[in-house]
Design goal:
8 strands; SH3 type barrels; 2 domains; 4 helices; alpha+beta; 5-stranded antiparallel beta sheet
Length: 174
């Protein structure tokens, strides 16, 4: 599992495999691919700029044109489909090791595929640390739970004033 790359499976994994290198070659990083719907599916792609600068509308346009061309050639979905490109946003999904590490100290919601510590599937707390295999989350009463990354169904940041302040700080390139 790469620190800079999310892990996808199935159709989403195939699409991620197709778009990852062209995205990276243009200075972007893949955050998440999600396919929504069946009859006319929507391929949702969330991306970041590799240089750390905020992902803006021009970036959405650039990535959308790039991925439309790449996916039209590779044609991973045989029926009609729609492409949506967006930034990950402030309360972003956490899909890469570097995201869990960057946002250590901030609140997150994590849902597992099946019951984990304490027989629970859903956890909310402060991110403590993460590596390629495990995410540690401080939950109620200062208990720290270790959650296996392979068991995480979805994880995202919780929108708080502290998170807003952190994500709206100017970056060196701004």
């Amino acid at each position: 599992m790469s620190e800079n790359r999310p892990v996808h499976t199935g159709l989403e994994g195939r699409i991620a495999e197709i778009i990852m290198e062209p995205l990276e070659a243009q200075g972007y990083e893949l955050v998440r691919v999600q396919v929504v719907g069946t009859e006319t599916p929507t391929v949702q792609v969330m991306a970041d700029r590799a240089d750390g600068v905020s992902f803006n509308l021009d970036d959405c346009t650039t990535v959308s044109h790039l991925l439309s061309a790449v996916l039209d050639v590779e044609d991973p979905i045989t029926t009609a489909w729609t492409l949506e490109v967006s930034s990950a946003g402030i309360d972003r999904p956490l899909t890469r090791t570097k995201d869990f590490c960057k946002y250590a100290g901030f609140d997150a919601k994590i849902e597992l595929n099946f019951p984990g510590p304490g027989g629970r599937k859903r956890f909310t707390g402060k991110l403590v640390e993460a590596d390629a295999e495990t995410v540690r989350l401080r939950v109620e009463k200062d208990e720290i739970v270790a959650l296996k990354r392979v068991d995480i169904r979805k994880a995202k940041l919780v929108l708080t004033d502290e998170l807003i302040a952190f994500t709206t700080q100017p970056t060196p390139a701004d």
